[in-house]
Amino acid sequence: ACNGYEVIDLGVMVPVEKIIQVAIDENIDIIGMSGLITPSLDEMVHNVKAFDKAGLKLPAIIGGATCSKIHTAVKIAPHYPHGAIYIADASRAVPMVSKLINNKTRQHVIDSSYQEYDMMRQKRLSQAKRKTIVSIEEARSNRCKIDWQHYTPKKPNQLGITIFDDYPLDDLVERIDWTPFFRSWELHGHFPKILDDKVVGVEARKLFDDAKQMLTQIIDEKWLTAKAVIGLFPANTVNHDDIELYTDDNRQHVLHKLHHLRMQIERVDNDNFCLADFVAPKDSNIDDYTGGFAVTAGHGIDEHVARFEANHDDYNAIMIKCLADRLAEALAERMHERVRKEFWGYASDEALTNEAMIKEKYQGIRPAPGYPACPDHTEKATLWELLKPDETIGLNITENFAMFPTAAVSGWYFSNPKARYFGVTNIGRDQVEDYAARKGMSVAETEKWLAPVLDYDVE
What we know:
This protein has 15 helices and eleven strands. It is of the alpha+beta class. The chain has two domains: 16-125, Rossmann fold (3-Layer(aba) Sandwich), CATH 3.40.50.280; 137-167 and 226-298 and 328-453, Cobalamin-dependent Methionine Synthase, domain 1 (Roll), CATH 3.10.196. The strands form three sheets. Strands 4, 5, 6, 7, 8 and 11 form a six-stranded antiparallel β-sheet that branches. A three-stranded parallel β-sheet has the order 1-2-3, covered by helices on one side. It has a two-stranded antiparallel sheet with strand order 9-10.
C-alpha cells in the first residue's frame, strides 16, 4: 500500500499480456507505466494499443525519465481514448490518482488533458514545418572546422584504463550539485538561493537538513560504495563522424570505433556539430586522444531502501535514492576534474570553484550516450566493451542499456578547447541509412533506437 492505495508492482520490462491479465484478475482502477530509456517509449505505445484491443477502459498514468508530455501527446494518447495521462514525477501521482479514481472528476481530467495534448500536437506540427533539414553531405560540409595545423592535442599523462574500487565519499561532498536534488522533490529554484525563497524556503531548509543528516550517516556508516573506471586512448576521426580508438600510440591496431550523429537542421550562421569534429582527422597525421568513463555510487543501496520500505518509510527510501544519484553525479564531476588536471593533464593549472564547475566553465566535455549530443543508447555497448564496467566496478547495463545500479553516470571525454555540448534532433533518412551502415545495424533497428530524434515518421 502507498498513500492509502493498493499498488501492485509488476517489476520492470513486463510483457503487456501480463499487465492486461493482472488488470483483469485484480479489477484494478489505473495502470501506471514508467519509461527509463528510449525503447520504453515504443513499448508504451505498443502497450496502450494492446490495452484498447483487450477492452480495457482504464486510465494509464505515464511517466519516467525518458518520457515527456509532448511524447505522450504526440505518440501515446492518439492510440488510447481512455486516458493516457502524463505526470512529471512521483510526487504528482497521488493527486492525479485521486482525480482519476473519482467518477465525478475522471472524465474531466481526461478531456482537459486531451485538449491540451491536441494543442501541443498542432504546435509541434507547425514547428516541424518551419524546420528545414539539409542532406548529411551538406551538414558535414558545415561541420565545426578546427585549425588542426595550429593546435597540438595534449597526450594524456596516463593512457589506458584506471579503476577506483572504493572512492572516498567524503571527497565528493563539495562537488554535489544540490539544485537537481531539490528539483527531484518538486522544489524549483537554484541552490543556495532556494533556502531563502519566500514560497518554498522553509520546506527547502527542512529537506536540506534531513539530506545532510542522512549524507553524514551514508559516509560515516559506509551505507554506499562509490566506484569508477576511466580510460584514455589514442584516437582519430574517420569517415567524417566516427572515431577510431587505438591500442597504443603506434595507431596500427584499432581497439574500437565510436559512431556519432551530426546535427542536420539547417544552420546558416552556425555549425552542424558532431562529436567527431572535436578529434583530429586521421588524414591530418595529428595524434589525438579521447576517453570514456563509468561511475556509480549505488552499491549497497538496496538493503537500505528495503529497510526503509519495510518500515513504510517512503520519505527516507526516496531520500537515499536521491542522495545516491547526487553522489554519482558528483563522482562523475570529480573524475572529470581529475582527468583534466591529472590523468590527461590538459588543464593541469585549473582552479575552479564548485559553482564554476556546475556551470561547466572548464575546458572539455563529457557527453553521455542517450543524451542530446549522442542520442543513441546503443553506443553504450561500445563503452562497456571498452571499459568493462560490469567486470571492473560491478556496473551493468540491461538489454535496453539502462544502467544498474541506477545511481550511475557514463560517457565520453573530449579535451579540445572548441568542444561543446549541443543537441542532435531532426535526423533525416539519409543520415539514418548512413549511420546504420557504419554501425552494421539494420535501418529498422536504427530507427527504433533513434525514434525520438527522427525527422520523419517510420512506416
